[in-house]
Amino acid sequence: MPIRVYKPTSPARRHTSVDTFFDITQKRSEKSLIKIKKEKSGRNASGRITVRHRGGGAKRYYRLVDYLGDKFDLPAKVVAIEYDPNRRARLALVSYQDGDKRYIIAPAGLQVGDEVLSSRQAIEIKLGNRMPLEYIPLGMLVYNLEITPGRGAQLVRTAGGLAKLMAVEGKYATIKLPSSEVRLIPKQARATIGQVSNPDAMHVRIGKAGRSRHLGIRPTVRGKAMNPVDHPHGGGEGHNPIGMKAPKTPWGKIALGGVTRKLKKYSDKFIIKRRSHKGK
Hints:
The chain is mainly beta. 4% of the residues lie in helices and 24% in strands. It has two domains: 3-201, CATH 2.40.50.140; 223-275, Ribosomal protein L2, domain 3. A hairpin with an 8-residue loop joins strand 5 and strand 6.
């Protein structure tokens, strides 16, 4: 069982679950593939807080992940499956025949000793292999999708993520994304065969405030608990409803269900079906 639930020896333990890390084969990261990650605490270059509730947390190194996969037609052997503190998916440390080592997002089921291959042409349909969408069979599950050929993977990179190749026609391939959005992507864009590793990550429950602080998440105060001068939900005696049609941010914008996507965005023409919203 990938998720471990403890006996409820305390109120926090009752609601906490943790990852078992059963698939991790190496604890020490590759020194040449890490760099210092400076904590910005949600602030921009001017020092102003632009993202609230950030700060503190455990120190961590950033792993340099190869999203481009530009070593073509050169087999790489999986040396280790590693934990990454910056993402929920697992990383696979692969070693090429020329001695070069890189981190890639590991697919579910990849084992130490397996070989993966990246190519611009049709190659074997095998877990972890990377090739253009036009050479992948219809109905295949893929991840690490490019939006623009040659730019590197930008879609479907989180733990458990998978997309489905629906069709290839003309210059474009039709892809169904995890959000249920169906869109066109150039058929020369490359993708990796499989599903992103650690699909059970979504079932881990934080369980207590201290664990959130370790992750760099600071406390969030309810708008209803504030004064009217501080939040649109604030004020009133006792427990009152927010008193408006929809929840709002502290700056008066709609917080749930509001459209944030740019109107008439250039890529709208590539979207065949919009993503489905929860609760609708």
